[in-house]
Design a protein that fits this description.
By secondary structure, the protein is α/β, with parallel strands linked by helices. It folds into two domains: about 150 residues, ATPase, nucleotide binding domain (Nucleotidyltransferase, domain 5, 2-Layer Sandwich); about 180 residues, Nucleotidyltransferase, domain 5 (2-Layer Sandwich). The protein has 15 helices and 14 strands. The strands form two sheets. It has an eight-stranded mixed β-sheet with strand order 5-4-3-2-1-6-8-7, sandwiched between helices. A six-stranded mixed β-sheet has the order 11-10-9-12-14-13, with helices on both faces. A hairpin with a 4-residue loop joins β2 and β3. The structure holds adenosine-5'-diphosphate (ADP). The site of adenosine-5'-diphosphate (ADP) has 17 residues, from α10 and α12. The site of adenosine-5'-diphosphate has 17 residues, from α10 and α12.
Length: about 400
């Protein structure tokens, strides 16, 4: 079965066409900087040259059309016809209370996902655009939704409850859900495999550092805590999201700036994080280049970002009562050697030592700690697409 997996992020669209029997990737690609200047698509059909085009992508509809055009392109595509695609699997960020596992998509499911838009304002609308665009072009193809919230359902109550009146949990299910679950699940399992250890015997901290960013603590194969909350706004400083802050800031700033809570939440989701702090960009490549030129705000922004990551690792080391392995993944975690170094410099107390040569890699499965390091530190490129293809094929069969 040929499964097209669509992962519409806030500023990126990753896709893979996967043969679900052989698990071979037939083609893959990435649309980057969607909605930002300098957007580009890179596409590679297996066995053919990779092509990269700088092309304007104002929104995800345009990006999806470019993906389908690339897959069927006579020269660098891999399909004669879009009908060869047997199923499409979509990564969906928030499934609310309704979805505790993956599901086939119909009108009712689309409506239910739409109802969760408030909870993931950066991602669910982008996810839905992916679903609608595919439906418009290929109305017959079965589609599955794979939710980011599922892996974190094993969190104990002490980890997912907020310190607010319990009735809000009972009445409205206000609690920590966590996101990037497909990634945390895949990366923690791969970490055990790479180390040749039993997944059920390990304490692993996964740092998923992309445009959205979250950390999870995984004990004996189960998630016990994660940094994102009711929505993806909580936790780390992210590309454009604030992460943790004093909730009283919301009212304080609304009064000072004469804004509604909705408007201020938009600021916290879309104009904060490293973008808001630096005033430069949400992209770490731009920040890194400004920092290397001595731009003080870029330097401070990166310091604040890595400091927050290191604090969460400390907290989760306590939650796990020790840690065997720390895995870095997603755009920043996989590619940014300076960032991994900066985070690990805080972790000397755990006996962590990084091998600079190994740390210089980009996007490859690598143990970057020295053999004598007190904790194994790894780069493990996430593979949400494969995990989604597996779930989609299982549902469609
Ligand atoms: P999302 O899926 O949440 O949009 P990604 O996991 O694709 O995020 O990560 C995107 C981020 O990864 C970009 O904003 C960029 O900051 C960072 N990134 C990608 N490549 C590099 C690189 N070579 N060096 C540093 N950062 C990078």
């Amino acid at each position: 079965m040929k499964v097209l997996v669509i992962n519409c992020g806030s500023s990126s669209l990753k896709y893979q066409l996967i043969d679900s029997e052989s698990e071979e990737v037939l083609a893959k690609g990435l649309c980057e900087r969607i909605g930002i200047s300098g957007s580009m698509i890179s596409h590679q059909s297996t066995g053919k040259d990779k092509i990269t085009k700088e092309i304007d992508m104002p929104d995800h509809v345009v990006a999806v059309q470019l993906v389908l055009d690339s897959l069927t392109d006579k020269e660098y595509g891999v399909l004669q016809d879009l009908k060869e695609i047997d199923a499409v699997g979509h990564r969906i960020v928030h499934g609310g209370e309704r979805f505790s596992e993956a599901t086939l998509i119909d009108d009712d499911v689309i409506k239910a996902i739409e109802e969760c838009n408030d909870l993931a304002p950066l991602h669910n609308p982008a996810n839905l655009t992916g679903i609608r665009s595919i439906r418009q072009i290929m109305p017959e193809v079965p589609m599955a939704a794979v939710f980011d919230t599922a892996f974190h359902q094993t969190m104990p109550k002490k980890a997912y409850l907020y310190g607010i009146p319990y009735e809000y949990y009972e009445k409205y299910k206000v609690r920590r859900y966590g996101f990037h679950g497909t990634s945390h699940s895949y990366v923690s399992k791969r970490t055990a495999e790479i180390l040749g250890k039993d997944y059920k015997d390990l304490k692993i901290i996964v740092c998923h550092l992309g445009n959205g960013a979250s950390i999870s603590a995984v004990k004996n194969g189960k998630c016990v805590d994660t940094s994102m909350g009711l929505t993806p706004l909580e936790g780390l400083i992210m590309g454009t999201r604030s992460g943790d802050l004093d909730p009283a800031i919301l009212n304080f700033l609304c009064q000072k700036e004469d804004m509604t809570i909705g408007e201020m939440l938009n600021v916290l989701n879309k104009k904060s994080g490293v973008l808001g702090l630096s005033g430069i960009s949400s992209d770490f490549r731009d920040l890194g280049s400004e920092a290397s030129k001595g731009n003080e705000r870029a330097i401070t922004t990166l310091e604040a970002y890595y400091y927050r990551v290191a604090k969460y690792i400390g907290a989760y080391t306590a939650a796990l009562n020790g840690v065997d392995a720390i895995a870095f993944t997603a755009g920043v975690g996989e590619n940014n050697a300076d960032g991994r170094k900066a985070v690990c410099e805080y972790l000397g107390y755990l006996g962590i030592e990084i091998d600079p040569d190994k740390n210089s890699i980009r996007g490859e499965e690598t143990v970057i700690s020295t053999p004598s390091s007190g904790v194994k530190v790894l780069v493990v490129p996430t593979n949400e697409e494969l995990a989604i293809a597996r779930e989609t094929a299982a549902l469609v069969k």
